[in-house]
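Sanity check. The docking grid for TD3 depends on where the pocket ends up, so I'm generating a full predicted complex first rather than guessing from homology. Inputs follow.
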Amino acid sequence: PYVNTKDILEKANKEYYAVAAFNINNLEFLQAIVEGGIEKKSPLIIETSEGAMKYAGMGDPLRGASLFVKMVREFADSLDIPIALHLDHGKNFKYIISAIKAGYSSVMIDASDKPLEENLKATKDIVRIAHAAGVSVEAELGKLAGIEDNVASAESVLVNPDEAKYFVEETQVDFLAPAIGTSHGAFKFKGEAKLDFDRLKKVKELTKMPLVLHGASSVVQEMVEIAENYGADFGGSKGVPSDILKETVRLGINKVNTDTDLRMAFIAGLREFLQNNPKEFDPRKYMETAKSYVKKVVSDRLELLGSANKA
Ligand SMILES: O=C(COP(=O)(O)O)N(O)CCCCO
Ligand code: NA
Ligand SMILES: [Zn+2]
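Predicted complex below; grid placement will be based on this.
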């Protein structure tokens, strides 16, 4: 069934596991993710960026949003696993309202690059509207390093746990993304991967609410190697190691945003197939390997996060 993200995350919060939130831009990634969820009997959170809304809607974000709602609902309504659709990194008021109008389960208002009071105000505005429409809300405190869609934040600003307690009480957000040292993309760490577990622990103790980890892709080496075997150059790529990811779940992360790992898996499969099948031009054939690798990465992640058999 198609459900509210909050229902999925409240259960995860109570039982201390995490649910992956996988980004999509097209049908093929959605198919592969859903196949992984079916195989693992796991709840799924499908999420799209504002760029994905524009991309799918051919420049019209509301058309893109409603296309994604229709696609995700079609799968969700025909399956026993709970599936939610979330707007990731909502920064533009128009896009956030379009997602709510289209029927998204939840929206993120990302004003993390603003001073606290501004973040607070923007979040309160969205919470009032979203809650009136039965839509749940995610916000972010602190800043990820690296490129955050259209905001290049040179250095990461880690969450302040006391600020987090004040923020959630004031805004009534449904789930919070505390910045603890991750960043988006495939090049997360120069040296050893390190996250601020202490801050995470404090935020959980003070807020007791479902927490979100952004920049959580692991950069699966198996996929990097396949891609590089067939011409990719992902030198220097490094993600969040599995043991560190598991520790964040043990400490109270319940939603794990994953985009880069699926992109790596898809391009690895596509490169491999195209190199080995010079005569093929049927899209249902040449995207098969790519989709199967995405499904594999999805299934493994659902298992690792503990949401398998939680549907
Ligand atoms: O936090 C994440 C996932 O980050 P990643 O998959 O890059 O680790 N997202 O919000 C997904 C979109 C960001 C661009 O990748
Ligand atoms: Na999000
Ligand atoms: Zn993110």
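Relevant for the grid: The radius of gyration is 18 Å.
Also worth noting: Residues 47, 86, 88, 108, 138, 257 surround sodium ion (ligand 2) (CB under 6 Å).
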